[in-house]
Write a structure and sequence with these properties.
The complex is a heterodimer of chains A (about 200) and B (about 90).
Chain A (H helix, E strand, L loop, with lengths): L1 H14 L10 H4 L5 H10 L11 H9 L5 H6 L2 H6 L1 E4 L2 E4 L2 H16 L3 E2 L16 E8 L10 E9 L6 E6 L3 H14 L3 H7 L1
Antiparallel strand pairs in A: 1-2, 4-5, 5-6
Chain B lengths: L1 H5 L2 E2 L7 H7 L11 H12 L4 H34 L1 H4 L2
Helix pairs in contact in B: 2-4, 3-4
Classes of the chains: A alpha+beta (about 200), B mainly alpha (about 90).
The structure holds iron/sulfur cluster.
Chain lengths: ~200, ~90
Amino acid sequence: MNRVREINRIIRIRNSTTAPLEPVGWSKCGFCVFRNACWDAAVRDKDIATVPYVDQGAWHQLFGSGVKNYHQLYELSEELLAEIKRPWGKHRRRIGPARARKIKKQIQALKTNRIIMASPPPLPPGYRPGTRPLMMFDLENDVFDPDLGVKVYLWGCLLVKESGTPAAKLIVAGPGVEGDRQGWLDFLAWRSPWHRGQAS
Amino acid sequence: MYDAISKHLFLPTPSYGLKWVEKLAGFQRSQEEFGGLWSIITYDRYINAPTKEQADKILDEILTYNQDDLIASLAVYEWLEKIVADPTSHVL
Ligand code: SF4
């Protein structure tokens, strides 16, 4: 049933002569080729969709009521915002006080161009500012082509020691199941300078 | 790191993704083109490159992107350390 509705929606969009009214959204736009154009326009217009914590349902409800940019949204009191009901699956649900509060704080940060602290951010357990060594990982997978046989195509690891230049290991997997396997083995086989130091 | 930032801070950015937060941390990428979508497309170009020279050139771009991501993560972590060490210097 949902598929039929989605196909009908696509047909409607294809037949229309004006652009559809759709909010930008990070997960929704993630791999869309129009992302830069849509996001540039949304950020320029201070569209309420660019306020983290304004979900798609809230966007539709607010935009439909004439609240289009975050300056207008900021005019609403936290209490009023919390009571606004937006589409939520098959139902409608209040934005609620917790999300309303976050939206207001988020807009305050955007309007003042300042960071607002809700509570002190933690570092990893056992870490204080300046604690080293650190390991940074960056792995990426190929979501477009499951037939390629490569699950992770990019393996990145950065070791930051107490002193000296951080050491990086970067691996790009070859194609096919064998490339995937070799990428993983190469990653495991990296004996970082720190490990070598420990061993000697 | 994402949790430490998104659950405790409100940032003047439309997203809490690395590509936005790294700018607050003062990090500048060495390559103009980057991102998850760019990377997937570039990897596809790499494995289908007609010559070894072309494949090597594309490989360089992917590796630079990956290295930039790692150094950006480090820049964001160091920025977070500064906030933890002295909250008043960075935040409202
Ligand atoms: S970037 Fe793509 S998914 Fe996002 S609003 Fe634009 S067209 Fe829609």
